[in-house]
Input
Amino acid sequence: MAKDITRERIVAAALELLDEEGMDALTVRALAARLDVRAPTLYWHVHNKQELLDEMATAVMRQVTDALAGIPAGADWREDLAAYARVLRAEYLSRRDGARIFSGTRLADPQVIRMKEPLLERWVTASGWTPVEADDAIDLVTAFVVGFVIEEQEKRQSAESDPERYSVAEREAWLGEGTPLVKEAGRLRDDGDPRFERHLGIVLDGLGARSA
Amino acid sequence: MAKDITRERIVAAALELLDEEGMDALTVRALAARLDVRAPTLYWHVHNKQELLDEMATAVMRQVTDALAGIPAGADWREDLAAYARVLRAEYLSRRDGARIFSGTRLADPQVIRMKEPLLERWVTASGWTPVEADDAIDLVTAFVVGFVIEEQEKRQSAESDPERYSVAEREAWLGEGTPLVKEAGRLRDDGDPRFERHLGIVLDGLGARSA
DNA sequence: ACCTGAACACCGTTCAAGT
DNA sequence: ACCTGAACACCGTTCAAGT
Output
């Protein structure tokens, strides 16, 4: 009997399962159980697990384009790029290991690439950028966000599983003697939004310096 | 009888296997076979597979510190940071999926963190940076390199498995109508070293703008 | 058209038994 | 101290069989 299983429902359930249990627990059997169905059923709707993972990545990136479409055009390229960076980070952060799992995945959906067009157009006409400069700007910010969030999520999850390793005292004992500056930097180190905004600002400064 | 299996030999063989066959083929049994031994033997030397993966990540990062130690101090922070970025990229590139697999992994070895000290010291004394600025600089460059190489390796591997998708004509058909700037950027797009150096330069410009 | 039970080859890991 | 055979619970995937 039909149970109304669709690709979309499978992908949505897979993302939920990933968030709740992690990548290792995302098995075809567990996913089927969550949809109240046996494992082979899923192969009627999806060719194999890799295709499912690709669909998940596409769904995540589509959320980025949707969020981006809901944001009004900024006053200049800097505002546009900052908005893009924040949306991308928020989306990666919203899923367990989001940045590591979903970055750089071959995209199954041209729509995701096409989202670049309105941004490129604005910067080429209003800011006098070449298409290459505009494309560089998106890719460079993307690379920065991916690297930043990978480290951010890794640290957050290590702090959960191993809290004392991240106390200042434990860390300094672990580092041993002779690294005063590393320790001082560790004590002054911030994280989360302020750190992201600061680093993002530096990247955007670099892009601005190039145009000038 | 003893077969002279050591943690070091296991980790080295695991890295070879990863490069040759990829992550999915890196199984305990296949690794044991490569070392001419049965699977349970490895559990005498390593607690479990996760510990092996951690050791692999540490070995990769140790290569970075070793390479870095072999490089003379640059004339200023910019040269030092560029050298660091190139070493990190080269090391990630040298292993299959290196950036995705080995970035942001909790490091089992304090030595890797301690490598920061000489760099921080030079920049704080010679360039007048605060420890936070110096620490930011390393982390920001690290994030950029990670994001850059993840995309670089992903694209390289997609191009191997699906060559026609990466021809200009195929790509433009796939994108459909109405994205002239995305297409133009795609035609002009470079890759490899020149692209890396250009993007790295922008990041370093940003760090320089902050100091001034 | 859609779902299932049974089966296949494989996985990480444990453990008693060998040397 | 170091290695192995046998076994366990589990995995992705296939396929004939059900409705």
Chain A has twelve helices and no strands.
